[in-house]
Amino acid sequence: MTQTADAVVIGAGIMGAACAYRLAERGLRVRVLEALDSPALGSSGRSAAGVRAQFNTATNILLSLHSIAEYRQMPEAEFKAIGYLILVPPALWPAHREGVARQRDLGAVTDILTPQEAQAVLAFDPAGLEACTFGPQDGVVDPHGITFGFLRRAREHGARVQTGTPATALKRVDGVWQVQTPAGTFEAPLLINTSGAWSGELAKLAGFDLPVWPGRRMVYTTGPLKTARQVPMTFDLTSGVWIRSEGARLLIGRANAEDTGWREGLDWDWLEHTLSPALERFPWLHEADLDRGASWWGYYELTPDEMPILGRMPGVDGWVNACGFSGHGVMQAAAVGRVVTQEALEETPFIEIDPLRFERFARPELSQKDIQV
């Protein structure tokens, strides 16, 4: 059986859901194909769910600002403005301070605090820190709710979503993508790659290389704290440790740059590497107990510069990327859905995405660095 559409979106996580909604809203016939048995079972559903506008580059700031504004109006997002606190060592402060100025110019609310002033937000050991920044309008969302909310809206505009339908082969024939699956063949002139950590694998099916690969990330969960604390999403840029409240519990994590590839399951050996710097920075964590059963893991979708790849793929007709977000996908999905739709319709995206296009890998002057937390 062959089904035809105007656009095939491959991947029904938060990014694919946002793109499907905005494409269908513009009148395109959309088919969403998800390899797993339900949407949001991949990286979206295993996210730490933080959203922030505290980036250094204008493109990332705007993608997050517009997404957060949309989440605030979206009941399914369950947005909570718990704030984002970033602890900055001296070596990173000049670039970080420039980022704050850019954030403010673009409309974000970001406060600069001394480490002593930041104690009013959260108690921590200020050793080795130059300054802190706090985004009171940043917070956390429900990625499941957002994904299913976008998919519901997509369906209302005629989109069809098929789960348990992995792409097994891809080819471009007479201006049309043919996507073979166990459920039959799907044809469309546009293919939107929202496959997350699997985006590089999808490109291989089409016969080209896309530098996106999986990186495993752990989220360790404590039991209820003995002393009630409201902890904003807090990143220590010295160590890469982050913590935040989840009800009466805490979520704790730290990226392991060497943990790449298709590795599954929680890495309990990495726990010591996470807790040791966390306890140094937040001594009151000694009162917490770890809840192993509530902890989880998930994949980041990584790129060489840990920045997403957006826009049409050069030399590959009808292929549009929205992948490689390196942990920032939930933060930016709402705006990316709009940008990708404009790109697919050959309109000028409302946010400049040239710094995030694939072409930057061949032109280093186009590449930009950003806060990687």
TrEMBL record:
<dbReference type="InterPro" id="IPR006076">
    <property type="entry name" value="FAD-dep_OxRdtase"/>
</dbReference>
<feature type="domain" description="FAD dependent oxidoreductase">
    <location>
        <begin position="6"/>
        <end position="342"/>
    </location>
</feature>
<dbReference type="GO" id="GO:0016491">
    <property type="term" value="F:oxidoreductase activity"/>
</dbReference>
<dbReference type="Pfam" id="PF01266">
    <property type="entry name" value="DAO"/>
</dbReference>
<protein>
    <submittedName>
        <fullName>NAD(P)/FAD-dependent oxidoreductase</fullName>
        <ecNumber>1.-.-.-</ecNumber>
    </submittedName>
</protein>
<keyword id="KW-0560">Oxidoreductase</keyword>
<dbReference type="InterPro" id="IPR036188">
    <property type="entry name" value="FAD/NAD-bd_sf"/>
</dbReference>
